[in-house]
Amino acid sequence: MLAQESYGATKNFFTSRFGNLWDDFSRTKFAFAGLDDFHYADDIGKHTTRLYQNTSEGAEYQRLRQKLYSEAGEQSGRKVSREFSEEAVENVSRDISEPRSHFVGKLRGEDVTLYDIEMKKINYVKRDRSVLKELRNDFNKSVRKDFLKSISSDIKNLKSHGLSETDIQKLKDGLVPKGYQVHHELPLDDSGTNDFSNLVLIKNDPYHKVITNYQNSIARTMKIGESKEVLWPIIGKNIYN
């Protein structure tokens, strides 16, 4: 993009000084100078030097070189600045209903991005504490263990996620591998259940901690029975690391 803008600036400036001479040095003929390899606005000066030296207009070139060099860079800079500003406005004004493929949360005061995650709009309802306690007890007593055993048979999937033989043996025994947690996609504090489809084996630091911090920032001020519409990170698979 930057190279294309610099190229356009060069063509306009060159044509205004030398008229049809530009046509004699078309994009194809200019390829010897490495036009397709532009990476920065400054490159335009180097390649234009070689072009002028091949036109016998060396004296005129020396007079115009600096202006050409600066105009190309200035136009490129304005283009990049404008596009950056437009992107920033677009990000700020993005509607809550727009799907996203990543989640940005906080951990120890720093932004952490979790990729390959769908952000869904949900109605978070603070659950009755007695129901929450019962669900949590069931999870701790048997659900977690049964879930871990259920995913232990897909060895290929486990190894593709980097789990070691030791980790896999722990799963077969219904134990959580070191550095992992079993995460509820929709939290029990809300409308989440202990169904296996709602559970994920997730790397604790930073992923589970980041999502937990996000949940706490939403739920800590809510009263029992209160509801709030929020965007929620959904992993959509049984392992995330």
From TrEMBL:
InterPro entries: His-Me_finger_sf, HNH_nuc, T6SS_Hcp1_domain. It comes from the Bacteria. This is HNH endonuclease.
